[in-house]
Design brief:
The structure is a homodimer. Chain A is of the alpha+beta class and about 160 residues long. Chain A has helices at about 10-20, 25-35, 40-45, 50-60, 85, 90-105; strands at about 65-70, 75-80, 110-115, 120-125, 125-130, 140-145. Helix content of chain A is about 35%, strand content about 20%. Chain A binds a DNA duplex (30 and 30 nucleotides) through helix 3 and helix 4. Chains A, B: This is Helix-turn-helix domain-containing protein.
DNA sequence: AATATAGGTTCCTTTTTAGAACTTGTCAAT
DNA sequence: ATTGACAAGTTCTAAAAAGGAACCTATATT
């Protein structure tokens, strides 16, 4: 598979990875969620080369995840801010952080704690069914081909969708 | 920042990306969740080079996300299966798929639909607070430094954590 | 006139990835 | 007994991506 064709694949995961699936993009977005907006601050915090940072920011803007917003004129300076589309990546970020908290922490535990403003407690994210509200694990979900994709995904879903134990 | 030091960063997102944050790893894991277990099947489905596939599988095994399990002897053949640690990445996968379904689909809609076995309905994932059960968005969460990290993350969290609008 | 700032671009080197051919141990067919 | 197939790699060379440093542009400050 060619990397440039990833956003044309018949798979939403592949299409999302066309946007965020490289070495740096999710770290840039992490900083965006921390409130970082300016080129030089991203550069310093991440230790990314300017060339790559320029490229990734352009890509994120072109996909509508970030948008440029002027914060001064003469000379024109713009900052990069999360769009609504970008803000909706929050569950992904939270999922990655939560897995890292559990499986990649050292003896000091989680570096950052998340407080739910509404209830005031330290929280971690929990994934639920949109329909019944129950918590979900991999074994609770069955996959099938979407109505408009019948016959086009025959070899994508293996015959034996296999319980993954 | 050096890429090899990513799993030592004081950030759970960075540490998780040390495991899954490259071009191919999440696509390999997607196939694992679809029930794929063998080297040649990964290779054919992904169009990945054998060299890189070997490398990524080794890495995933070394981090305990996959484990090798013999399915025949003479000659010894092993397959790659998701460990419990790997299965716990499901919320991340689901989050990426869901975002792609919403933002990257063409006119045919989502290629794959998810049915919640318990309630029988087509579902999408919803992220909730582990403590009160409410649904969560980026604006509902406040970040702060973990107890054992006081004073070590001063420049990680910007002074003004900024609402991300 | 010299320096600083923000946001880049250019150039060259090093690291990764792509693509194809080769390897190893075993079994099945000629 | 030889040939070919299979699964899971390893080894090569070439192309693409990333790293690192220097340079550029418009404006404002000293």
């Amino acid at each position: 598979m060619r990397w440039e064709d990833l956003d044309q694949q018949p798979c939403s995961l592949a299409r999302t990875l066309a946007v965020v699936g490289d070495r740096w993009t999710l770290l840039i977005l992490r900083d965006s969620f921390l409130g970082i907006r300016r080129f030089d601050v991203f550069e310093q915090r991440l230790g990314i080369t300017r060339h790559v940072l320029t490229d990734r920011l352009k890509k994120l803007v072109s996909y509508g995840v970030l948008y440029k917003s002027p914060y001064q004129e003469r000379p024109l300076r713009e900052e990069y801010r999360l769009s609504d589309k970008g803000l909706e990546l929050y569950p992904v970020i939270l999922g990655l952080v939560s897995w890292g908290d559990k499986h990649m922490s050292d003896e000091r535990g989680a570096p950052i704690v998340h407080t739910h403003k509404t209830c005031g407690l330290h929280m971690h994210p929990s994934t639920h069914c949109s329909e019944c509200g129950d918590a979900i694990t991999a074994k609770d979900v069955k996959l099938s081909v979407g109505v408009n994709w019948q016959g086009h995904l025959d070899e994508f879903l293996p015959k034996k969708p296999a319980t993954q134990t």
